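Handout, page 2. Input:
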Amino acid sequence: MLEIVRKPTMEKRSPLKQNGAMTVVDGDDLACLKPSSGSGARRTALDVLEHLRGCLLSGALKPGTVLSQVDVARRLDVSRTPVREALRMLQQEGLVEGEPNFRCRVVSFTPELIDSAYGERILLETLAAQITTKVATTDDHLVVKRRIDDMNSAQAHADFNVWQVPHKAFHATLISRAPTPLQQALEDRIARTQRYRSLLKSRYPDGWWRRGEIEHQAIAELFVMRDMEGVVRQLGRHLARSALEILTDIAPEYDPVCVRASLALISPQGNGAAQTG
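Output:
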């Protein structure tokens, strides 16, 4: 069983070990589930799916949370039919486990899941960034520079939620000229890795989100210079560092095989970022 490292900054959440996975328990596990203007019979399974998926990927629904059709339907003010279908689709996506007709549980995140998600993201995002770097317009370059300025603002430095907006836009611009199917494939990987980061953000000191400033600046400069190899190399190392921070925090003994292999593929001579585990 993996040993979960606990830090004193974690006061409002209690991480529990379940079969080597990290599980977080809160007072009201379903507090994020609220009725909307589409409540009742008019709300479709896709509406419920979108709502639940958003809560899962944002970290509002914590790993280990039990989801019963009755409770979810009552919270969202809908019938059980769209809830059952939404839970079935979430099970197919690997976000919940169990039997949708009875009770499901939000999937706990394990080192293997984190390693795999980041490994896939490194490969796909660097591919999309390489394509975008080659054909990027002057406007794309200006947007990237503005996002850097926004991330470096005093307000963003002081508030993670403020910083997160230009940060997401920065990464989105780097892949904006890639084929739509590739961008769509990336959306899921990005959302999953952001979920892991969001769930653990309370374990880090204030301002931890500024650690990547130098890396973001380097990526932006290479992007404007249309240095495709440089963008791929620097972006891959940037994503790998994020993965290793999370893995080192929750399972320092785990060997990040997927992250290492992904870096080796995109930069055979420059995968030093994954030399710590």
